[in-house]
Description:
Chain A is mainly alpha-helical. Chain A contains ten helices and four strands.
Amino acid sequence: MWRVLRDELHASGVELITVGLDNLGVEGCRAAIETAQPSHPALIDTHHVMARCFGVVNIPQSIWIDEAGMIVRPVTSAPPPPIDAPDAAPPDLTALPERMLNIMGEAMQIESDPDTYHAALKDWVLNGADSVYALTPEAVMARSSAPSQDRALGHVHFELASEAVVQGKKQLAVSHFQAAHRLVPDSWTYRRQAWSLEAVEAAGPFARFWQGPHPERPEEWPYAGDWLTDIRREGPTNYYQPWED
Amino acid sequence: MIIYGDTLSKQRFEQETGWIIKPEGACKNDTCIPLPFDENTTEYPVTALAAAMNLPLVSAPEMNASALGHDSLGSNALKSAKAPDFALPDLNGTLHRLSDYLGQKVILYAWAPY
């Protein structure tokens, strides 16, 4: 979907750069990238540089940058482009484990507004700095906030956890993920990354989406939260920040 | 920034943090922070550097590694809308810098396979 949009917009002087946030790096991102067959740069971010540099706390999120390298729209929820296709037959979910059914039930309540986002995006592509959706540098800076000491330390803990994963030191990674989760509590990417590494093979293709205690060994779950518990606590309607003109 | 061992080279520090070492100290934008090192020092003890600049530092002795934050604790919010010039690899290991795409509008799109 994004490739279709990219190819449509590229002639207008736009490049889409996708960044896969995954401690598993190439191994984690390859299948999705190769399936997408991108015509744009598809980068891999093992240490979540996007979090420190741009404030990414969930996916998918986007940042718009103009020709001079200036941010005109800071980190924003970026739903996939709306597709104009006949309604597909609903997938057969009967074979899914109960947890996956519950996750999908919550996910279906997550709110996003692709029409608004993509209308604004196209307006910026066509009109550049004259677009009402292209923020001035002052507006971009006004939307930023000084990082708290906790947040700054949390980023560093997460980076160290990521390096521990890369080095195969799983238990060490867990302790630093735990610290990052406490210090940057609004980051879904920090939580989901850690949870996804506790893959439950019984979930088949959803192994990394299980993101919760193993059904047979729940006592081994090392984190304070999990995807299902956290989304229910925070509310699926609060999962993504709404578009802000 | 992941650092293995106890020291960090001046060159790497400058390249990866954007702080520039001048006679008055480490400088970025309109801020300079004095450093307790001789001007000719090329390898900085990480702990002392972090303390002098009030940079967040977390150590993992088990890996002989530390993670050093880029900006001083208590620093102000964004002072510029200039996008940080990061570098990340693609599937083939080719590094792409954001600055490689100057002259084009860029939609930076963060996703995850989980």
